[in-house]
Specification:
Length: about 300
């Protein structure tokens, strides 16, 4: 199968994933309890049926559900996610203001995870069943068991209060992003380190490695020139999936560190039953997650012809 056909097939899956996610969130929001009109009207206004009807008419909630869906999905394809029920601000504007914070945490967290995971996995594989291997794998078990929000609180207290190296709250400088990214990245690093170790060990057992070893190729050259390039290919897609976990984890971490990203925006929207804002945020996350995975797929397709089957 040609590269173009494979890419087109993966791209069609990307579009389908985004469509299913957007459709699911639209109808699920209409099923769960909570009336946006009553929240907007307030305690007193909610007692007046006429006021509630006027609000529903203004928001378009009086129309049949299928009509609401078609109007919304049609606007979404053109980048119009509607306006927030609470502020009447276009959803795309609100997301554009908050997205850099969330992406900053996730990207920095991913960099931290890879910077720790790759060396740790290589060292662990190179010292299989030795004390170094046991220490690294044991540490990864511990980090995987620690909730990210709890780790964030510990880091905040230690490096923000007891040893005030980093600022506590806000997102005005790069220093504000280090602790949140570290809280997210350590758990992902533990997961990826185990994958790197497994992948490197798999390459160690390949025939070509045994052959090169018999030729007395220096171990360092064998590792960095032959083993690692092949071992890193299977890690690309799991790493992309972990980026999705980082985006999801940022929702909670933003609350811990008082950062005004899309995570906090989404939680506020859920509390207020702000349908357009919730839908727009979910689609944005779905698009980012799908695009990152598509990019990882594309790199694997280029690097490994076997993946084109």
């Amino acid at each position: 199968m040609t590269i173009l056909k494979v890419v087109l097939r993966r791209f069609s899956r990307l579009i389908l994933t985004i469509f299913i996610a957007s459709t699911a969130v639209f109808f699920l929001l209409r099923v769960i309890p909570g009336d946006p009109a009553r929240i907007i009207a307030g305690v007193e206004g909610a007692k007046n049926a006429q006021v509630l009807e006027q609000i529903r008419t203004r928001l378009g909630l009086d129309q049949p559900l299928i009509v609401q869906y078609l109007q919304w999905i049609g606007g979404s394809f053109s980048g119009d996610f509607g306006s927030s029920y609470q502020s009447d601000t276009p959803v795309i504007t609100l997301l554009a203001e908050r997205l850099p914070v969330t992406l900053g945490i996730a990207v920095l967290g991913m960099l931290i995870a890879l910077m720790i995971a790759v060396p740790a996995g290589i060292i662990s594989a190179s010292n299989r069943r030795k004390p170094t291997d046991h220490v690294i794998m044991g540490s990864s078990h511990i980090l995987l068991a620690i909730p990210e929000f709890w780790l964030g609180i510990v880091l905040l207290l230690f490096f923000g209060v007891y040893i005030p190296v980093f600022p506590l709250f806000g997102s005005s400088s790069l220093l504000h992003f280090i602790l949140p990214a570290l809280a997210l990245g350590l758990g992902r690093a533990a997961f990826l380190a185990r994958l790197v170790r497994t992948s490197v060990l798999r390459e160690f057992s390949r025939d070509y490695v045994q052959f090169l070893s018999q030729l007395e190729v220096p171990r360092r050259r064998l590792l960095f020139r032959h083993i690692l390039p092949n071992a890193m290919i299977p890690i690309a897609i799991p790493a992309a999936i972990q980026f999705g976990y980082l985006l999801g984890g940022a929702i909670i971490i933003e609350q811990v560190f008082g950062m005004g990203g899309t995570g906090r925006l989404l939680l506020q929207a859920i509390q207020m039953r702000d349908f357009p804002l919730i839908q727009g945020t979910v689609i944005m996350f779905a698009v980012i997650f799908s695009v990152v995975n598509f990019a990882a797929d594309f790199l694997v397709i280029l690097a490994d012809p076997r993946s084109r089957i």
